[in-house]
Model the fold of this input.
Amino acid sequence: MRITCIKCPLSCSIEIERRGDVLDVKGYECEIGRRYAIEELDNPMRILTTTVAVRNGIHPVLPVRTEREIPKSLLFDAVEILSNIVVEAPIYHGDIIYKNICNTGVNVIASRDIKKI
Amino acid sequence: MLKVDVAVIGGGAAGLSAAIKASENSKVILLDRNDELGGVLPQCIHDGFGNFVFKKMLTGPEYTQFFIDKLKDLPVSIKLETTVIEINKDKRIIAISKEGVLEIQAGAVVLAMGCRERTRNQILIPGSRPAGIYTAGAAQRLINIDGVLPGRRVVILGSGDIGLIMARRFKLEGAEVVGVYEIQSSPNGLPRNIVQCLEDYNIPLYLSHTVVEIHGLDRINGVTVARVDENLKPIKGTEEFIPCDTLILAVGLIPENELSRDIGIPIDTVTGGPFVDNYMETMIPSFFACGNVVQVYDLVDDVTLTGEIAGRSASLYAKGMLSSSRRIPVFRGKDIDRVVPQFIRGDSKDIRLYLRVKRSIKNSEIYIRDSNENIIYKTRRRIVKPVVMEKIQFPLDGFYESLTVEVYG
Done:
């Protein structure tokens, strides 16, 4: 697997492969890059940001985010769930919009205030 | 007529921090043409803002919210849906709003109008003029603020950061993203966005490719793309028709300086923004500028920092307390594309310069030389790249005629 390191502008192209118990990592320039590549191989995590529908708000959609990173493999499942959510204005930033998304233990929270019309 | 110490034009990241800083000891008015504060930030719902200012990765709306909350307790008069149409050299401002014409007399002015996107006209794509062609920012606003998906099968021209972020956004909203086409031989966006917006979603990036024709009458139904040669000219025989219902243009940003030009403020043709010194004062005293109106920054954190400097300087100026020591020019030397600020005040002790290099250089050294060719500061970088703005900070003491920035491999 080829991974572009994003930890510094060098953008090392790291080749990483697991053969049984042996981890083969090539092309990194520093320890941070090596660790990043292993993390990306074993358990890549991402913050998800999207919008959910709002009723009676000054805008029809509310930007939301996962409080912390969730597994990359769950991004589309999480978006699917959130595409069916409708919240009622007013909303305040930090409000929990969805608890424990995809059983990750991570909440989805509002990124901003949305006033009621 | 309204009288204020400091008038801030534009309520985006730069204007917000300028207004907050200036209000510490001045009467401030903040004017913005939009119906809410934050400039482009409220529509930038992705995370990655505030790594330096807040030491965490916030979304655009969260970043804005912090400043809006802070402003609530400060004596800043905020006028939304208010468009400044004229400013004269005596700092008399004319703006229009729902209330009618507003006249303001300011002691100092902070220009924080930001930037806007380049359009199809500026990159000269031939073809018909159907619906379905959007700048990346316009599409971003439609999806993230208005809740409207502008298309289902999307081609993105240009690999600027907003284009990359919109590729991911379209994909998450269920649209198909055919690919990102970049005329240059290397991507224009930050590596982080190439990875997390394209590679994560298997969206192809075609380098050295461009759109040569747009098809469709009422609605776009496809584009012709082609490879380009080293002079960026399309290569005959490489044309390919790509069906799509949406074309997104992510082809760069331009500082929005119509007001600055009307005032007569000298503009740097390299950055597209006013020449400024390290107080963020333009070449016309009492006019300050900050954020993307000066040059397009990579990070909002730096926009905020320049806003703070401009706000502080403007309020000092309005009180007659801003130093007027002589200006030292900062020249662009070897492989340096641009430097901001272009001038340093002689009595400054701590200097921060933003620069872009002309080409990628590994194991580079950045030098600051004085007019006698003496190196007064040097710093190393493992790599410098044109797409990554470099920031250098160094102490200044002594008397200098000029400074020159250079980069060597």
Summary: Chain A touches chain B through 26 residues (CB under 8 Å). Strands of chain A lie at 2-4, 13-19, 22-26, 45-46, 49-55, 61-66, 70-71, 86-88, 96-98, 108-110. Chain A has two helices and ten strands. The two ends of chain A are 50 Å apart (CA to CA).
